[in-house]
């Protein structure tokens, strides 16, 4: 086990390019709301994410982790620091980035196929690649459900379609905002397995936001723990557990218990502030 | 503006039926449960209740004519009304004495007015939803127009458009306009921010966002407006006919009234009532087909 871990870490080190795919330097964000004045959501976050890396961000609710993701997705602007994607300043939504929203966010009036192919039909794109969409649907186990409507699908299937949609433009980066938060525990574990498989097959760079400690350790190469508002990076923890991981074996891995209790300790300390 | 919003909500609340469907449409896709049982349809039950209601009404009518001796110039006997109905129906369709010629005249005028009014309502409602400037510019006038009693404007419209089809179409359009204007405006504005985030994350153009996300999202609202508009358009055409026309169901009624043919008036009203129900249920049926997602797969 120890040797396997060592090999894994070495691999990551070797693969790491000189320039990280995502680079955040002193990123800050303050909201001004009508009801509660200004809210300092994100405070001087420094974070690098390497090409092909899977990073999970955990933190207490309202810690600005969603804001961080929205800024990377180009849906919100940062008012301090620098946000770079592949060396370029983020100025707005990019085709290099696929976003997976909370609760799937499928359009109920479009069939599953039309939802998944939506990114290929808007924003100046009119690519008809039925084959690619079919491949994506098959990969996500939705091969027979392309002509169904979202209301005919279970929550887990809907979110799989949501992931397919985010992959439609073949982006380099996948940003996932608590994608499985609305699912029951069992479906959630299954979706984590699926996501690990999809990630390993596609080689995307993933930043996933979650409030589940077990989910973060299961999925991530690196877990980033954020503080309560204003959100700062408290600690980055590398997960030295070999892949493919499964929930059966991961809990018996001593590294899992160590990481889980460390993350829990950090979050509990923050919880008292809230 | 908040006052206007209040008005909007009120106009939505007025349609008790539609509200259920609106809520349905408003639900996000994510809250769906694992299993998807198809709900049994409650339509059969509904038509039984409606049938019983009609029978009770008919019985009350017969009883009040027979035993309370209500004079026929107030409440004609059912037989007299049925006779009048039959003489209008069992007739050569081209005979102007029957219902077909006036019905066609009224219906075609109402339909053209419906098309113009709802089309304008959708276009202006969309412009108002997309632009705060247009909203501020038009909303006060829309409400001013709506708060005027249409029957009072009708004579003016007749002066402008004459006694021909023009005034009928204009008043039908005027009445059909407002519910679609307000409902499309409200529906387009009611889109969830997550859906807009999605379209933005895909760098969708403004028109793509409108066409793919906002308009379908507003469809249940727009159909609720169309449902009202279709009946209003019919109403508008008939009101215009009352003020002066060569033909139409409004003329049939005024002519029967002129010779104190109360049974004839009743018969014409029954025709119009049946027509109203038919138009309403056609819109509902169309809505169920187009906005199928809001009904969660119910037939």
Number of helices, where a helix is a run of at least 4 consecutive DSSP H or I residues of chain B: 12
> What structural class is derived from the secondary structure elements of chain B?
mainly alpha
Which shape of chain B, going by the Cα principal axes?
globular
How would a textbook summarize the main sheet of chain B?
none
Q: Based on the structure given, which CATH architecture of the largest domain in chain A is correct?
A: 3-Layer(aba) Sandwich
Instruction: Give me the count of strands of chain B.
Output: 0
Taken in chain order, the helices and strands of chain A follow as HEEEHEEEHHHEHEHEEHH
Mean pLDDT of chain B: 84
Structurally, how many domains make up the residues of chain B? 1
CATH architecture of chain B: Orthogonal Bundle
Query: If helices are DSSP runs of H or I spanning 4 or more residues, what is the number of helices of chain A?
Result: 9
**What would you give as the CATH superfamily of chain B?**
MetI-like
Task: Sum up the overall morphology of chain A in one term.
Answer: globular
CATH superfamily of the largest domain in chain A: P-loop containing nucleotide triphosphate hydrolases
Report the oligomer. heterodimer
CATH class of the largest domain in chain A: Alpha Beta
Which range best describes the helical content of chain B: under 10%, 10-25%, 25-40%, 40-55%, 55-70% or over 70%? Answer: over 70%
Strand content of chain A: 15-25%
The structure class of chain A reads alpha/beta
